[in-house]
Amino acid sequence: MILCKNCGKEVDGKFCSECGQSAKTDRLTWKSVLESLVHGIFHMDNTFMRTTWVLIRNPQQLLTDYFAGRRKPYMAPVQFLAVWCVIAVFINNIVPVIPGTMSGISVSESSQWIVSHFTFVTILTIPFIVLAIKMAFYKGGSQKYNWVEYFLGCCYMWVLYLLVSILVTPFTYLDAAFFNRFIGVVMTVYLLLTFWAAFAFFPRPFWSTVWRTLLGVLIYILLTIALSFIVVLCVKGW
Q1: Has residue 126 been placed in a domain?
Q2: Separation CA 138–CA 94 (nearest Å)
Q3: How many CB atoms lie within 10 A of CB 14?
Q4: Which of 49, 132, 179, 226 has the largest CB neighbor count within 10 A?
Q5: Is the dihedral of CA 147, 86, 93, 107 positive or negative?
Q6: Average pLDDT, the chain
Q7: Is residue 222 within 8 Å of 215, Cβ to Cβ?
Q8: For residue 94, is it within any domain?
Q9: Cα separation of 43 and 174, whole Å?
Q10: pTM of the model
């Protein structure tokens, strides 16, 4: 007897007669990610809003369900992140430009390239997050999931950072002094989200998780600086 991993009903055939999820939900691999992405692009439905709501309300439930094979109610992670990247860029572009404020500051050619390729750059940074996790939590629980599972989990979690950035976008168009004070609050929220994720998935002694998380953040910053340097060289045609 096969039970559906999504709803728990008995499955007789390739799909569950109760919820429609496939009876076969193997461990996540690059092949399954590609197949899910291709299917999701051409079959987008209300799973987007449902995934967003669950991510905001209980992100740990979303990740736990997806890793456990209960994937039918949710949009695939890479596609979900890509959609929110597009939304973030769109919102940033429709906010009116106010002369003499943060919006009037000119940006470099490399910064313009990053903005115009925001989705690509965002997804490109995810492997650096995974690498930072693997390095910081080496022998500290990082073996619990494989690289693909970490990658997809980080795609979901990265949307939380995007949602915060979308909420504070209007503040970037106020006077520079106010924004410089407010950005500290935003960075604190980012750090708290990072700590939450660490404590949720690496339930070790408190201070061990704290220092490993800070180490992971430091490693990620160094890796992204290196990536930014490479992007600048490529844009300038070096």
Answers
A1: yes
A2: 43
A3: 8
A4: 132
A5: positive
A6: 77
A7: no
A8: yes
A9: 40
A10: 0.71
Distance CA 167, CA 162 (A): 9
Amino acid at 95: V
* 105 in a structural domain: yes
The per-residue b/e assignment along 83-112, b for 16 or more CB within 10 angstroms, e otherwise, is: bbbeebbeebeeeeeeeeebeeeeeeebee
User: What distance in Å separates the CA atoms of residue 76 and residue 152, rounded to the nearest whole number?
Assistant: 8
What 81-86 contacts at long range (C-beta under 8 Å, 24+ apart), as own/partner pairs, is: 81/119, 81/122, 81/123, 81/126, 81/155, 81/156, 81/158, 81/159, 81/162, 82/119, 82/123, 83/48, 84/159, 84/162, 84/163, 85/118, 85/119, 85/122, 85/123, 85/162, 86/119
Q: Domain for residue 92, yes or no?
A: yes
Tell me the residue range of the domain where 143 lies: 76-235
The percentage of residues in the chain with a pLDDT greater than 70, rounded to a whole number, is: 73
User: For residues 35 and 223, which has the higher predicted lDDT (pLDDT)?
Assistant: 223
Residue 76 has pLDDT above 60, yes or no: yes
How far apart (Å, rounded) are the C-alpha atoms in residues 155 and 200? 16
pLDDT tens figures, 97-138: 444 433 444 445 555 555 566 667 787 888 899 999 888 888
Total domains present in the chain: 1
CB 67 within 8 A of CB 145: yes
